[in-house]
Write the structure tokens for this entry.
Amino acid sequence: MTIQIDNETISYKDKPILDNISLSIHEGEKVALLGKSGSGKSTLLKRLYELHPQNCSYIPQELGLVNSLSVFHNVYISNLDKYSTFYNIRNLIKPAQKQIDIIHPILDELYMSDLIFKKCGELSGGQKQRTAIARAILQENKILLADEPISALDEFVTKKVLKSMVNTFDTIICALHNVDVALEYYDRVIGIKDGKIVLDKKCEDITTSDTQELYHVCDDQF
Amino acid sequence: MFAMTSSKNLNVTLLFLFVFVLAAFNADFTITTLDPIHELKSFFGGIFEIELSKTPTYFDAILNTISIAIIAIFISSILGFIFALYFKYTLLRTSLAFMRAIHELFWALLFLQIFGLNTMTALLAIIIPYSATLGKVYAEILEEYDVFPKELELKNSSKVSTFLYTKLPDAMPHLISYTFYRFECALKSTAILGFVGLTTLGYYLQGSFMQGFYGEVWLILIIFYLIIATLKYWFTKYSAPFLLLASFLYVDGFGGFNLENLIRFVTYDIIPSPMKKEQGFYELYVWFENIFLNELMVGIVNTIVLTQLALIITALIALFSFPLISKKFVNKSSIFGGNIILVILRSTPEYILAYLFLQIWGPSMLPAVVALSLHNGAIIGHIMGNQSNELVLRPDVTTKKIELYSFEVIPRIYGSFLAFLFYRWEVIMRESAILGILGIHTLGFFVDSAIADIRLDKVVILLLFTALLNILVDYISRRVRAYLRINTTVKSSCDII
């Protein structure tokens, strides 16, 4: 299946956030959206999710975690529709071993398994991001739409997390502002500036001047 | 911007001062007791007549007060939670506004007619207004902490699961802590129910007052302060389930619920008497006109007069008392003393203060205004004192106290002072109405007389207007706060809402 939008324009208070954007992403592609904050990446991702809510996992920039619940419960949230209300309540009061066995390996991949019963409110920014990623992984969708999901991770963990994301999801569209990470782990990069696509290329076709252009697009000082 | 807000503050202040002057001309402040100084002396002399050995006499009343308060807050919190879930329905919101607007003592007087003097009456009197208040505040808390992104909600998961996993957890600690705050209020309210004959602490307090046994009065008051002051040590989330169970075992059953009486009350007692006699519309009109002109108007005017007088004097007491507990103005030992005075005035329900001053001065506006203002002034003064302590002023600020007060501190906290005052306005009005039971001609006086005459149809009309008056004040208060842009939520203390 292909994700496609044609001539999409979204405005807020008469100012266009997305300015006449057309885009087509094929199954299996790993796409990085690059751009500085306010460029329209988040709006684009949210719009793509609205068009395909059924088979996409979505990680918004604010993550949408429930701070008073444990990491386990926050991940389990994406399975609420698979079980009965009764089972959900029972699992809220005392986590079922069966569910722990499902969620533990996912967290282990992200170096989070020792924090499984810690409350999300007590986690660091990077740990919160990995919890949200685990929640997205548990949903078992083919497509991942993620908005700056690794901005607070250190280099070592970033690599590990990116690998498990790439292994789990068939298609990924991920907003980033780190050009090097994008070029190393993704197949295609899309540079966005002021709601317009300024560059859209496969990583293998990127030239040095393209890279310079991308650095420019992502630099908050310009 | 600041100049604009402060001129709005000035407008509102001047308007309320004007109303205060009007009210003052219409109020009766005569002292009717023959020798008020003597009464005052013997009251304070009572401190030296305390007999601690009498404490066991009150064990039953203490346990009864605590048990009823615990059961009432438990049931109120369950009902309040259910109300909060359906708070978006206008009919429910309106009903809750009425339940809140009528004071627990009025509810008690009403249920006394139906179920008699028993636990059932006491519980209902607390549960009805408290569940309504909890419902409103719970709804606000749930809304405030409903931050889970809507787009992440799963379409096929049940509403219950989504609520329990994504909405409730973050709100829960706040719901619980507000309920605990509210328990302190419930304890005070339950004690006060004794004044209409239910066997809680207030019952013994009134008895000792009437006989002039001031030593006993002091002993009961001290027991009461100790219960309130130690609350956070014995009523915790760990002890609460055991205390709840013990309370259910302690209270004298729930006998007294009489369905026949309830049906008679709803279908006969409260029907206007001309309708009972199957008279025409004209008689009904005359019946209402009589109540309206002779009782409602007098009651409403006096309630408003008392409220507005008490509101302004509350403001003055708060403004003058907060420096007593502020390290910007006085030293540590003065703060200690100031705190003791404010804590005592805050913890003593206005009804008990009014009862005390009434013994000294006789029934007029005077004891009521003094009681309401001291209690509420101490509450607001306490909050302002804490706020002024938190202010960070530049190092070279003036050392002259008056200049510090008027140029640095007051301009910074005047807005929130007005906010607290207007939050308190509705409470003061509810209390003003109820103080009528003590003989001042506010609405409570006429309610009490109508109950004594067993004219329940009239009672219902009077209570209806009492509630409407309260809802009106609540509405004006919200509008004024919106005008002043001071509509901050204050949920940290049961004292405020």
DSSP finds eight helices and eight strands in chain A. The mean pLDDT of chain A is 88. The interface with chain B takes residues 46, 49-50, 53, 58, 60, 62, 64, 66-69, 73, 76-78, 80-81, 84-85, 88-89, 92 of chain A (CB under 8 Å). The two ends of chain A are 37 Å apart (CA to CA).
